[in-house]
Records
---
Amino acid sequence: MKSVFINKNEKPTNEDLKKALGETVDIWNSFVEFTHANDPASFDEWNFSGEKFGWSFRIKDKKRVLIYLLPRDKFFKVAFVFGQKATDQIMGSDVSDEIKAELNAAKSYAEGRGIRIEIRDTTKIEDIRKLIQFKIAN
């Protein structure tokens, strides 16, 4: 499933995001604020990945992407790539078994294991915040 924003020539605005995400926009914004609060040097970037995927939002530090936010119709996905050290810490944490299983099942690449988590309501907020902290720390 691709982004709701597919026009390469129109970078999404905050108003576009509100319309697309509906009630989940507040959760999206809370993840952006939480990431910046935990890594004040981080910065935002909209990225167009081509016709197949459309626009996505990234929060980066100097060297890497900390979190990907992928807008969909009335919901969004959060994506991470974790190295082995972070993966090991997550597996030993109190993050939900569902997220641990997805991370464990993810194919391991040189840059790490990638996971995408669908956000339609507030049930996963605490787990996502923990994952953001693991990513920043590793």
---
Amino acid sequence: MSKYLDPKADLTFKKVFGEHPNLVLSLLNALLPLPEGMEIKTVEYLSPENIPENPGKKYSIVDVYCTDNHGRHFIVEMQSYWNTEFFSRTIFNAASMYAKQLDKGKSFGELKDVYALCLVNDVKAFPKYGNEYIQEYYLTNKKHTSDIRTDLSMVFIVLPNYTPQNRAEKKMHDLWLRFLTEIDENTDDADPELLANEETFEALELLRRSAFTPGELLAYNQYWLNISTEKSAMERERAEGREEGEKIGIEKGIEKGRADAMREIARTMKQHGDDINYIAAVTGLSPDEIKTLQ
């Protein structure tokens, strides 16, 4: 049996980066193009739930949401397959988190920048850009392209396109991407460079299979089963060239299947005695809904 689990699953990704501020801080500093002198010193986790004021509007949950010592807001997402909705959902989440800052009595000048870091484990992402592994989106003046605003910034990293590099000036950038691309269930011995670095060593320790409860391991396996099912459905859709209405129906079916799978994972973890709040963080279900599961 392998020593580690794959960090790209919902459960493992949130365990590493959603529960350890020092690790998500290191990841953000390494992968985001932050202005010089504006590196992140501390982070504080915020609720990943994007709940609209109008109950009839869209509800969304991100993997990790935090703010830093400069007041900036950061969304971190791991996406295991690419579809046309993910880019739009990223814009929606970033814009929503930007707007949520404006409490009553505050001025627009008090709004802080929002960064969305999206890690995509699908080679089909951004096909027109070939094998480039980073795509950055900002608010830009169309005529004067050097006029870039960072109020809303989205950085997408296509993990399968990343090639390890040996460069001292971007050491942590490469170490974190190697951690995300090299470590999986077939890894018995991590590379010495990952073990020698304090942050990636800590992250590796959190991924040890022995650190997970039976309920968590069942949830982990169910996650990959769900991903395989969703990818198969998306592949059939692409191959058969579905009409728009039929595509929407398929996507709704996938969403329903995912919701049902999350309830089944929550039910299993609950039966194994895992904490309700932890189950909620892993599955995205509310603690009240989890309590009703039998």
---
Amino acid sequence: MKNKIDEFINYLSVERGLANNTLLAYRRDLTKYAEFSEKKGVDDAQRVNRGHITDYMFSQKQKGLCASSISRNLAAIKTFHRFLVRERLATEDPSDLIDTPRLWKKVPEVLSAVEVEAMINASKGRGWQAIRDNAILELFYASGMRVSELVNLKVDNVNIEVGYVRCIGKGQKERIIPIGKKARAAVEKYCLSARPKLAKKNMTLVLFLSRLGKQISRQSIWKIIKQYAKKAKIKREIKPHTLRHSFATHLLEHGADLRSVQEMLGHSDISTTQIYTHVDKERLKTIHSQFHPRG
């Protein structure tokens, strides 16, 4: 079965152009599935039946996996078996009659505009690190990019003069995102005064660099966000995508249309973007209960 998983991952990479992180997630989920099947004496995908798959899903539930993780596992398994049938590597799809559970979409945690402002202000300083970190936070909030997109951004992906960033998202899909004057000024300052000090002789095209002159990591971005949230005395939980969620929510709060926000976020399905309208509704409910006389 593991050889067929390799073929499937190659198909996802070459034919569908999925991002490396997505490929790793598929491989991780399917490897666990293959190992479980082998322990049950099933080492060939042709011999898998519906009972094997339901047993595997139940075992994941017993291990304490949350509903969303179990649903993701099942989605990977179903896609894998459909691929095998389509490529004539199997005659039947044992996952065909297994329904993927419908899940409530979690309302993402967002910061208020005041909190974002405090966080960005907390990053201001004269040293190269402060200048770099301020540019990262300004651009992150101005564009709503994913963390993975931000760390892979190239210098020539940002047009400071015109005011836009060319972002390469999931599946190598390109999108253009406008950015405001504050983000443009912060990135320009970083490129002129801080980045030349970080870049080594072997000049890299990546925009944001670590102190060693290499591409900054996603973990470093995460640490930067936590560092300045703490400095700004924000006590609520902060996650890597908090600024992305805040970007979308604040745009909708100020009257942006859903389709435009969908395009800037790079969502292929507008239902994914619609979650941010729920965030606004949740905030309205909180305000109502707080200030209405009979709330």
